[in-house]
Automatic annotation (TrEMBL):
PANTHER family: HETEROGENEOUS NUCLEAR RIBONUCLEOPROTEIN-RELATED. InterPro entries: ESRP (IPR050666), Nucleotide-bd_a/b_plait_sf (IPR012677), RBD_domain_sf (IPR035979), RRM_dom (IPR000504). This is Heterogeneous nuclear ribonucleoprotein H2-like. It holds the Pfam family RRM_1. One of its GO terms (molecular function) is RNA binding. The lineage of its organism: Eukaryota, Metazoa, Ecdysozoa, Arthropoda, Hexapoda. Keywords: Repeat, RNA-binding. Residues 13-92, 113-175 form the RRM domain.
């Protein structure tokens, strides 16, 4: 019998929130999940926007392990402000696809050291990206190659989570 929540190492423990007030902040989400270990703290929360740049009422949160996943899922239908929030498990591929095709609340990702790469060769591997950014500290499991969730093919995009905003700024100078 395999692990109930983790299909592969790359899937991690990702949850999706739906029904958030549009004004919700990362700190409010962290408070909502008090007692749940969010992977990489604030950087583990991604509040999405619609294509027009407005908050979508949805967010993705990566938690540390199966126990945290169970505790987070236990918050399903609890209230944040006057709204009840849906909490459910998703695969990392869904999160990556959504972040690629919608967006994240401005200032959230880059301020936490996350950089989006575009135009990568389709055969790029995580090791290639790590080597390119040699000398700059990337958090553990901090490289995500984006795949089309329908056919599993690489899109030529990736997200790299550096240890802080300053390191991300140095990474951008390599362009």
């Amino acid at each position: 019998m395999g692990n109930l929540f983790q299909d592969s190492e790359d899937d991690g423990f990702v949850i999706k929130l739906r029904g958030l007030p549009w004004s919700t902040t990362v700190d409010e989400i962290l408070k909502f999940f008090d007692g749940v270990n969010v992977r990489n703290g604030r950087a583990g929360v991604q509040i999405t926007t619609s294509r027009n740049g407005r908050p979508s009422g949805e967010a993705f949160v990566e938690v540390e392990d199966e126990v945290d996943m169970e505790n987070a899922l236990g918050k399903n239908k609890e209230h944040l402000g006057n709204r009840y929030i849906e909490v459910f498990k998703v695969k990392r591929k869904e999160m990556d696809w959504m972040l690629q095709h919608t967006g994240i609340v401005e200032g959230n990702a880059f301020d936490q050291g996350c950089v989006r790469l575009r135009g990568l060769p389709f055969e790029s591997k995580k090791d290639d990206i790590a080597q390119f950014f040699g000398g700059l500290e990337i958090i553990p499991n901090g490289i995500t190659l984006v795949e089309d969730p329908f056919n599993g093919r690489p899109t030529g995009e990736a997200y790299v989570q550096f240890v802080d905003k300053e390191t991300a700024e140095r990474a951008l100078q390599k362009h």
